[in-house]
UniProtKB/TrEMBL annotation:
Keywords: Membrane, Transmembrane, Transmembrane helix. The lineage of its organism: Bacteria, Bacillati, Actinomycetota, Actinomycetes, Kitasatosporales. It comes from the Bacteria. It holds the Pfam family DUF4191. Residues 211-235 are annotated as: Disordered. The chain crosses the membrane at residues 36-56, 62-81. This is DUF4191 domain-containing protein. It comes from Streptomyces arboris.
């Protein structure tokens, strides 16, 4: 009996935490998307109304009403999630370290090491390893990050000669990838490595070491006031 009460209490706490998270996400999204409430509600009402209307036409309003309610909740969740994600990208865009936050949430199968290379101007290169190979994601001044990318590629060529290396420069200019499309771009890359090969590649790179081994940084966007030690480029 006590165990059952304990389980129910845990479930209630989990549900309360989930609802709180949804509320916080809604508040954050509403700052940059003031119409989100009307849009999500409109999608739900329209979906439910259409299914209920069909139910009356075919003579099964109860069944179609239940189905309409379920589909309405699902549609509202999908629309809310997409607009919340878009708002989050909009708020992160332009901040140093924003790409690292995106890479950290790319999904299973990828191992991300933020800030493997950086200079005093806060131009930075992050590294992700997955079945597509190695992806170097740079953010900062397009002209300066090219040098950082070239340097990192040389290191990769010495250590993992049999693994493809891709590079992405985050931005909205020609030849660049917008922050909100970085994840999609990486997931579309052809998969050429097996699971064991990915593990071996990560082990080799981990043995090489990186900037993070010597200078811990918080996850997500880096503080704008952060300064690099003297000496120019690191790594």
């Amino acid at each position: 009996m006590a165990r059952k009460a304990k389980t129910e209490g845990a479930d209630s706490a989990e549900n309360a935490g989930r609802l709180k998270q949804i509320a916080l996400t809604y508040k954050m999204t509403r700052r940059s998307d003031s119409k989100i409430g009307f849009i999500v509600a409109g999608v739900g009402i329209a979906t439910f109304g259409v299914l209920l209307g069909i139910g009356f036409v075919i003579g099964h309003p109860v069944y179609l009403g239940i189905l309409g309610f379920v589909l309405a909740v699902l549609a509202m969740a999908i629309i809310f999630g997409r607009r919340a994600e878009r708002a989050a990208f909009g708020q992160m865009e332009g901040q140093p370290g924003a790409a690292a936050a995106v890479l950290d949430r790319i999904g299973r199968g990828w191992t991300t090491t933020p800030a493997v290379a950086m200079n005093r101007s806060q131009d930075v290169v992050h590294r992700s390893v997955g079945k597509a190979g190695i992806v170097l994601v740079a953010e900062g001044n397009p002209n300066r990050v090219k040098g950082l990318l070239a340097s990192e590629k040389k290191k990769m060529a010495r250590i993992v000669v049999d693994v493809p290396v891709h590079d992405i420069i985050v931005g909205n200019g020609e030849g660049q990838v917008p922050l909100k499309k970085v994840r999609t771009k990486m997931l579309k890359l052809p998969r050429v490595l097996t699971g064991p090969q990915v593990t071996t590649t990560n082990d080799r790179l981990r043995a090489m070491g990186d900037l993070m081994s010597n200078m811990p940084l918080p996850k997500g966007p880096m503080p704008k006031g952060m300064r690099m030690p003297r000496g120019g480029k690191m790594r």
